[in-house]
């Protein structure tokens, strides 16, 4: 009897890191202290995927049993930043307070996770708290690495340079474009996976349109320097983009990777990836930087990561390959599809079902097909709506050829999608356009 009591006490006092502590990490605790530290569902990251899943989990297990760990006071609808960088939307229209998007009753833990301990079902935050869970949803997004380009991020203090990828630098893109006089306007794509792989070139098409509108286009040489060997990964849409590139006199250089910015001289240095050791220097009047990206450091150093550092999940059901009570969604995962909010939406519906089944000790039965989408903004009123799946085949919602530039798609991107995001995805009601696609294709897709 005494032995068992001592054992229980030891368990109660076992900390996340395995050392004795007064924080309680074990499951199914009953003391009031344990109740504060333990959640049935713990969501890490309060971005698109994290908020959407916490809304869905609230409906499943009740608000009091769900917590979200998110350090930022602000939540952003990042897809709008393409338009913010081109002066078509304000940054404030992409922003809400985090407190307003956390589902009511769900606990918001305003911290940064510093350590995962999936063998003990708990995490440790930068404030030193240890929080345990029965089910963990990892939705950390990805990490931007401006510092991997020599001269950045401090180079952003100079004018003529911007980046739509960060809330701190997106306005600088618009400043550089507004103040363009004459010379090279250069747009880059790094040598890493990125989120929204179309965004690095969308701002090029918008800049071209702006310079035409303001009568400066004749004095501009527009250049897209990309690390990739293709303009876009899906041929159907790449073919359309090539026609635009040619008709608008845009220059594309493949396998050019930005490695240094000399903002005082307005010079950008690129390595030629197919000729190791060879570099080329471009002068610029405007430079849009898409930074190298990678998995969050905290994930990379944990046992949840695959060899490349991304969250190692099953591509069909989004459950962790080694820890069955851990799940993932969004940019931080190793799902072999393009990283977008549209993908997050489709994933959220599948993950909801997977977790439901796991909670009932049933086999997951709904599969994610890799659906993702990229509205390729090609001017201030046109979009090519790319939609595709794991196979790289188009998976289009509408029964029309979506590889054509269309005004209706622009209005969808600029006006309708933000509403679907705030009122559908973040509330856990929007699981992607799958059901509508079926209806529009008379059940054939
Ligand atoms: C310029 C641009 C244009 C885009 N255009 C489109 C588009 O047109 N269509 C589209 O579908 N998608 C687009 N996207 C991509 C889309 O925004 C992302 O794919 C989507 O937001 C991913 O959601 P997520 O939840 O995985 O990550 P995020 O929404 O980035 O959320 C991650 C969250 O984790 C938090 N976090 C980070 N570290 C920690 C930690 N240690 N502890 C706790 N929390 C942490 C962060 O603060 C953040 O809130 C675009 C993105 C950009 C930048």
From TrEMBL:
Keywords: FAD, Flavoprotein, Mitochondrion, Oxidoreductase, Quinone, Transit peptide. Pfam families: Pyr_redox_2. Its cofactor is FAD. This is Sulfide:quinone oxidoreductase, mitochondrial. Catalyzes the oxidation of hydrogen sulfide with the help of a quinone, such as ubiquinone-10, giving rise to thiosulfate and ultimately to sulfane (molecular sulfur) atoms. Requires an additional electron acceptor; can use sulfite, sulfide or cyanide (in vitro). It is believed the in vivo electron acceptor is glutathione. Belongs to the SQRD family. It catalyses: ubiquinone-10 + hydrogen sulfide + glutathione + H(+) = S-sulfanylglutathione + ubiquinol-10; a quinone + hydrogen sulfide + glutathione + H(+) = S-sulfanylglutathione + a quinol; ubiquinone-10 + hydrogen sulfide + sulfite + 2 H(+) = ubiquinol-10 + thiosulfate. Its EC number is 1.8.5.8. SUPFAM superfamilies: FAD/NAD(P)-binding domain. The gene is SQOR. GO terms for biological process: sulfide oxidation, using sulfide:quinone oxidoreductase.
């Amino acid at each position: 009897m005494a032995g068992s009591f001592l054992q229980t006490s030891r368990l109660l006092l076992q900390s996340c890191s395995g050392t004795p502590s007064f924080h309680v990490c074990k499951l199914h605790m009953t003391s009031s202290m344990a109740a504060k530290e333990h959640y049935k569902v713990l969501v890490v990251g309060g971005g698109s995927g994290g908020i959407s899943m916490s809304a869905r989990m609230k409906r499943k297990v009740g608000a009091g049993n769900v917590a979200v760990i998110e350090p930022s006071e602000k939540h952003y609808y990042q897809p709008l930043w393409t338009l913010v960088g081109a002066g078509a939307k304000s940054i404030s229209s992409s922003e809400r307070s985090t407190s307003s998007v956390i589902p009511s009753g769900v606990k918001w833990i305003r911290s940064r996770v510093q350590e995962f301990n999936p063998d003990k079902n708990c995490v440790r935050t930068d404030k030193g708290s240890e929080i345990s869970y029965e089910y963990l949803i990892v939705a950390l997004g990805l990490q931007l690495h401006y510092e991997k380009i020599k001269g950045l991020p401090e180079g952003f203090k100079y004018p003529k340079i911007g980046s739509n990828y960060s809330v701190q630098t997106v306005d600088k893109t618009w400043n550089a474009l507004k103040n363009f006089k004459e010379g090279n306007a250069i747009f880059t794509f790094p040598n890493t996976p990125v989120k929204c792989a179309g965004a690095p070139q969308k701002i090029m098409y918008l800049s071209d349109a702006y310079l035409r509108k303001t009568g400066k286009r004749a004095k501009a040489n527009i250049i897209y320097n990309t690390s990739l060997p293709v303009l876009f990964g899906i041929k159907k849409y790449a073919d359309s983009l090539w026609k635009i590139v040619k008709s608008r006199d845009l220059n594309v250089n493949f396998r050019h990777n930005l490695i240094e910015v000399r903002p005082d001289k307005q010079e950008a240095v690129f390595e030629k990836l197919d000729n190791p050791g060879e570099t080329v220097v471009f002068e610029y009047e405007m430079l849009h930087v898409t930074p190298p990206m990678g998995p969050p450091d905290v994930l990379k150093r944990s046992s949840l990561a695959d060899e490349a550092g991304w969250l190692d999940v099953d591509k069909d059901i989004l459950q962790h390959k080694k820890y069955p009570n851990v799940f993932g969604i969004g940019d931080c995962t190793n799902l072999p599809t393009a990283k977008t909010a549209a993908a997050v939406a489709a994933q959220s519906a599948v993950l909801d079902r997977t977790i439901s089944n796991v909670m009932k000790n049933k086999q997951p039965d709904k599969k994610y097909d890799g659906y993702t989408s990229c509205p390729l903004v090609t001017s201030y009123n046109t979009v090519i709506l790319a939609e595709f799946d794991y196979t790289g085949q188009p998976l289009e919602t509408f029964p029309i050829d979506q590889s054509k530039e269309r005004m209706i798609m622009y209005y969808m991107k600029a006006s309708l999608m933000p509403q679907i995001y705030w009122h559908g995805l973040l509330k856990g009601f929007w699981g992607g356009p799958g059901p509508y696609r079926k209806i529009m294709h008379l059940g054939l897709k």
